[in-house]
Amino acid sequence: TLTWWVKAEATLPYERKSLDTKTFLVSASLGLPETQPGQPLILAQPFPNPMKSQSMIRFRGESGAPIALLILDVQGRLVQRQSFVATGNGQEWRWNGQDLEGRRTSPGIYFVKVTTGSTSDVKRIVRLAP
After folding, report:
1. Is residue 12 part of a domain?
2. Cβ contacts of 2 within 8 Å, gap of 6 or more
3. What NCBIfam families has UniProt attached to this entry (predicted)?
4. DSSP H or E stretch at residue 39
5. Which H/E stretch holds residue 122?
6. Ordered per-residue pLDDT tens for the chain, 130 residues
């Protein structure tokens, strides 16, 4: 019988390191609470926020549900759009600060809107000059 002693320390929300500095994955958790039957959608606060070049957007919906993710400017104009099918385990998408045409967006306030069915959630994100 072999006995292994491992010390895990947080380096990122979902990655841990061992004493011998070999990285291993403990879990694939996105840090979102479990969705409940009456709660079809969860949108976490984008990170980092404020952002310079990119920000991670994490969300969770009921498994199999279509999810629309929109980035809107302060006037409500569409900047970026992505479509997903919820896995039920949580998903993430990295916004690189570009619009639908691939152009770099201006510094300012933007809104991340995630919708599934008749349920929506919105988070604010601030884009800084790179």
Report:
1. no
2. none
3. Por_Secre_tail
4. none
5. strand 119-127
6. 455 555 555 555 544 444 444 444 444 444 555 555 555 788 999 999 999 999 999 999 988 999 999 999 999 999 999 999 998 888 999 999 999 999 999 999 999 999 998 899 999 999 999 8
Distance of alpha carbon 45 from alpha carbon 112, whole angstroms: 9
Domain that holds residue 105: 41-127
Which CATH number goes with the domain that contains 63?
2.60.40.4070
Place of tokens 């957007």: 57
- CA distances in angstroms from 81 to 60, 94, 99, listed in the order given: 17, 12, 9
